[in-house]
Amino acid sequence: MKHNFGTLTIEKVIIHDIPQHRAGEEGIKPILSEVESKLTQELKNYFKERINGSVSSSSAFDVFFPRFNVTRASVNM
Question: pTM score > 0.70 for this model?
Answer without folding.
Answer: no
